[in-house]
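Minutes, structural biology subgroup

Action item carried over from last meeting: produce the structure token record for SnoaL-like domain-containing protein (Diacronema lutheri). EB confirmed the sequence was re-checked against the source entry. Recorded below for completeness.
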Amino acid sequence: MACCTTVAAALPRFDAPSTEPALRVPLPAQLSAVPNSYQLVRLMEQWAERFGYYDGRIDLSADISAFSTPECALLPHAPLWGNKPGRETLIGAQAVRKRLKDLHSVFTIVRTDMHLTLRPDGRAFCLYYKRDANLCCATIDSAKNLFVGETEPDGHGGLKVSRVDEWAATDPSDGLAVLIKACGWPAATQPFAPYHGFGAV
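Output recorded by EB:
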């Protein structure tokens, strides 16, 4: 199941006005030339803030419309989330937040080995990381996965996240192959770069 749609090359840029806040973590140098790179990373940071990636706290009453579309949803591809191939279903963004809040009430979620790349057309981002769910001193569950965020123009000169797909990947090199083969990203996509953001420790 493809996770993205081919986008025409001639797209407007949505670059950061000088009044925008600084990013929490500097963008890897090799990705700075990608159109909309600031906007994409800022969207990632806003997602992480509202989905508890930094501190495990999720306020379900908080508005997420500043960075996501009303229809925004996540699709975890098998075997992630215990899904079987061909039986995956989209989960609305607010439902994902509720599930994460429930998980954080029991487990400590730790993300490590974070890497980042951006689609060359400047309309999608992808993170690779290892995720552990810890209870006291024991790791109860572990996974290595891609977090692929698609965007669309918000009508006001910016972008919003419209869909997220999660895919299993053994390492960043395997993740790049998944992006190209399963998601239709161009072969010219930059390799993943180390990135200590998005709640990584």
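Discussion: Helices lie at 37-50, 93-104, 172-181.
Next step: EB to file the record with the rest of the batch.
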